[in-house]
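hey so u asked for the seq, here:
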Amino acid sequence: MLDACAELVDEVGYEGLTTTLLAERAEVAIGSVYQFFPDKRAIVQALAMRNMDGYLQSLSARFASETFAHWWDGVDAAIDAYIHMHRSVPGFRTLHFGDVVDLHLLDAERDNNAVIADRLAELLVEQFQLMDRARLRFA
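ran it, structure tokens below
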């Protein structure tokens, strides 16, 4: 269902997405959609979470396989990974990490940018043994 959602978001946008359209594209009964998701926002939220997880996993893999001289090279890698997803992952260029739907799609308390910044900071602190996580978050 999430793959179908990604395709549809690219084709019709969030506003054009309906649960009926999603069920048709995913070739499932509408009841199956509602079994897992109460509404289209929840479906898109799951897709945004999958995008974030995929982004962070790909970045972690890159950190594990390459050597970076400075932490800002890691930031460059993060930007490269974002651009790659924008170009190649269905639904990502339209949805990003959910900010086009709701600024709090990833977390009810913090905005999407804060969620991503915190997760990136965690990766960079771990990879480069940085001490000042709060400062890095705003770098």
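Helices lie at 2-16, 19-26, 30-36, 40-65, 71-88, 92-95, 112-128, 133-137. The CA atoms of residues 48 and 97 lie 5 Å apart.
lmk if thats what u needed
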